[in-house]
């Protein structure tokens, strides 16, 4: 996190009846005065998650569906139970979208091999027509995530300049979880699960995004929980 711990506790965790002690906050240290990406954040929080079987990562500014997250976790757990150490290390829920913002290149065998993202390739690869896009949720086997993070840090981190990962913005010196995803995709250890809706990708990065975000949350909620009795998610 980078602040707002009290608000998260008071407005989210306690109203949802999370038991005291069931969460931890880790503040990401900012090397050179700047946070160095969510891959670096995962590295800094490693002591809290590396003892678990799975790590589920969610971008908190998206209109995410809990059903998308739990379905992805359940599928990866089933694959791990069947294949053990040979199971995929990463499962990404995706949506079929028109002109996807984060297009995914799939090989002839149906495996993801490349993720279109500005931080990885300078700009997101334009795609016209229908294609798969990620929706801000990832599920990793914790052991695989730990191995990939430590390898990337060993190869690309320096105390002077931060991270120098080939293909990333050299000025930023960041390490994104997208870099982990790219490695696992090339190795054939990533899988897609087409269970999400396009509205789940609705990032709020400025105040101008809030209205669209609220509409998308309502669309996702009504589509996934039609009998909840909640007419509006606002």
Major sheet characteristics? 5 strands, mixed
Please provide the count of β strands.
Answer: 9
Cα-atom radius of gyration = 18 Å
Strand content: 15-25%
Shape: globular
Q: In terms of structural class, how would the helical and strand content be classed?
A: alpha+beta
Distance between the termini: 24 Å
The whole-number mean of residue pLDDT values reads: 89
Weakly predicted, low-confidence segments: 230-234
Helix content: 25-40%
Order of helices and strands: HHHEHEEEHEEHEEHEH
Number of helices: 8
Q: Mind explaining what this structure looks like?
A:
By secondary structure, this protein is α+β, with helices and mostly antiparallel strands. Helix content is 35%, strand content 17%. It contains eight helices and nine strands. It has helices at residues 5-13, 38-44, 46-49, 66-83, 118-121, 142-156, 177-186, 210-224, and strands at residues 54-58, 90-98, 104-106, 112-115, 130-134, 137-141, 157-158, 162-163, 190-193. Strands 1, 2, 5, 6 and 9 form a five-stranded mixed beta sheet that branches. Helix 2 (38-44) packs across helix 7 (177-186). The longest helix is centred in the N-terminal third of the chain and has 18 residues, at 66-83. The model is unreliable at 230-234 (pLDDT under 50).
Looking at this protein, list some descriptive labels.
234 residues, disordered C terminus, alpha+beta, two-stranded antiparallel ribbon, 5-stranded mixed sheet, single chain, 35% helix
Question: Summary?
Answer:
This protein has 234 residues and is α+β, with helices and mostly antiparallel strands. It contains eight helices and nine strands.
């Amino acid at each position: 996190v980078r602040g707002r711990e009290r608000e998260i506790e008071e407005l989210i965790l306690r109203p949802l009846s999370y038991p005291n002690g069931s969460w931890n906050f880790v503040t990401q240290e900012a090397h050179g005065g700047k946070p160095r990406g969510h891959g670096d954040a995962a590295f800094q929080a490693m002591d809290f998650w590396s003892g678990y079987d799975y790590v589920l990562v969610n971008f908190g500014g998206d209109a995410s569906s809990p059903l998308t997250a739990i379905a992805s976790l359940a599928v990866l757990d089933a694959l791990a139970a069947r294949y053990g150490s040979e199971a995929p290390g990463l499962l990404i829920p995706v949506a079929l979208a028109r002109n996807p913002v984060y297009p995914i290149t799939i090989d002839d065998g149906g495996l993801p091999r490349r993720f279109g993202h500005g931080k990885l390739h300078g700009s997101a690869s334009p795609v016209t027509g229908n294609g798969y896009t990620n929706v801000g949720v990832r599920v990793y086997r914790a052991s695989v995530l730990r191995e990939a993070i430590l390898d990337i840090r060993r190869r690309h981190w320096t105390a002077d300049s931060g991270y120098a990962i080939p293909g990333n913005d050299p000025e930023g010196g960041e390490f994104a979880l997208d870099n982990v995803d790219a490695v696992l995709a090339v190795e054939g250890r990533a899988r897609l699960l087409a269970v999400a809706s396009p509205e789940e990708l609705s990032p709020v990065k400025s105040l101008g995004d809030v209205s669209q975000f609220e509409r998308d949350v309502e669309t996702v909620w009504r589509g996934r929980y039609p009998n909840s009795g909640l007419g509006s998610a606002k």
